[in-house]
Design goal:
By secondary structure, the protein is an alpha+beta fold. It is built from 7 helices and 14 strands. The structure holds coenzyme A.
Length: 254
C-alpha cells in the first residue's frame, strides 16, 4: 500500500507517558507553542497540549525524514486550521483531550481528528442539543441506559467534529448540517452534496475516550494505519508502536 493512500493516526495515552517522554515532546516545540503551553494553568491540560504538538512534529518528520521535528513551520487556513507551511502536499490534524493526544497525517487530502474524554456529566440533553439535530436528540434520549447514552453522545460529537475539522471550518460551520443514525451508526446527511466525499473511522479507546478520523476520498481511497505511541522515540523509529487498526470501524454513509 502506497504511503500516500494511508492516513497515519498516532494515539498517545498521555497519562501513561513519563516526565522524560513529556520533556522529549516539549523539546520539539517552537517558541509560540511553548508560550501557549506555559499559559495553560492546569498541569494535565498543559501535558496533553505539549504531547499533542510534539507528537505532531514527530509524525510529520516520520513522513519527511529530511526535516527535523523542530524545523516544521505552520500557517493557518481561513478558519484557523493549522497547515504545514510549504509545498509538501502533507496534511495533518491534531486533538487533545483529558488523558489523550492524537495526530492524523495524510498526503494530498484533507484530514480531521477529534478525541473526547467521556466525562459522564458532559453528556446532558442541553449539551447534546448544541450539536445534535432533533432526530439525533430523540434517538439519544430514547436510550435508557445512561452509560450507553453517554457513549453515543461522544460518538456523535467526535464524528461531527472530526468532519468539521477535516473541512477546516471547525465550529464556524454548524454541526447540525451533519445528521447521523445511531443504529447502525451511520451518517445520512452532510450539507447539500458532501456525502460520499469522505471516509470516517471511529473507535472507543480504553473505555475512556471516543475518537473519530475523517479523510477526504480524493482521487484514491484512503486507508487507516492507527497505532498507539508508547514513547516519543518510537514515532520516528516506527517502534515501539502498538497497532490499533482493529479497534477502528469504518462509519457507513446513507
Ligand atoms: C477546531 C475546533 C473544532 C477544535 O476544538 P477543540 O475540541 O477545542 O479542540 P481539539 O483538541 O479537538 O483540536 C484542537 C486543534 O485543532 C486544530 N484546529 C484549530 N482550528 C481548526 C480548524 N478550523 N479546523 C481544523 N482544525 C483546527 C488545532 O491544531 C488545534 O490545536 P491547538 O488548539 O492546540 O492549537 C474549535 O476550536 C473550532 O471550531 N475553532 C474554530 C471556530 C472558532 O474558533 N469558533 C469560536 C467562536 S464560533
Amino acid at each position: 500500500m502506497d504511503d500516500c493512500d494511508c492516513i497515519d493516526l498516532y494515539v498517545a495515552p498521555t497519562t501513561s507517558l513519563t516526565l522524560s517522554d513529556e520533556a522529549a515532546f516539549a523539546a520539539c516545540l517552537d517558541d509560540t507553542e511553548r508560550s501557549r503551553a506555559d499559559r495553560l494553568r492546569h498541569a494535565g491540560a498543559r501535558r496533553d497540549f505539549i504531547i499533542a504538538h510534539g507528537l505532531c512534529r514527530l509524525a510529520l518528520s516520520q513522513r519527511r525524514r529530511d526535516i527535523l521535528p523542530s524545523a516544521w513551520r505552520f500557517q493557518r487556513g481561513t478558519h484557523g486550521k493549522p497547515e504545514v507551511d510549504g509545498s509538501f502536499g502533507i496534511r495533518f490534524n491534531l486533538t487533545h483531550t483529558e488523558g489523550l493526544a492524537a495526530v492524523a497525517v495524510a498526503e494530498q487530502r484533507e484530514v480531521g481528528v477529534d478525541a473526547e474524554f467521556m466525562a459522564p456529566e458532559m453528556a446532558t440533553p442541553a449539551t447534546a442539543a448544541t450539536f445534535c439535530t432533533s432526530a439525533e436528540l430523540q434517538a439519544l434520549l430514547a436510550i435508557k441506559d445512561d452509560a450507553e447514552r453517554a457513549k453515543c453522545f461522544f460518538a456523535l460529537w467526535t464524528l461531527k467534529e472530526s468532519l468539521l475539522k477535516a473541512t477546516g471550518h471547525g465550529f464556524f460551520a454548524s454541526p447540525h448540517a451533519i445528521e447521523c443514525r445511531l443504529d447502525p451508526f451511520s451518517v445520512h446527511r452532510f450539507g447539500n452534496d458532501e456525502l460520499g466525499k469522505w471516509r470516517i473511522w471511529a473507535a472507543e479507546l480504553g473505555g475512556l475516550h471516543k475518537l473519530a478520523v475523517s479523510a477526504a476520498l480524493a482521487a484514491r481511497t484512503p486507508h487507516l494505519r492507527a497505532c498507539r505511541i508508547t514513547s516519543p522515540s518510537g514515532v520516528l523509529d516506527g517502534k515501539p508502536r502498538i497497532g490499533l487498526d482493529a479497534q477502528f470501524s469504518e462509519v457507513a454513509f446513507g
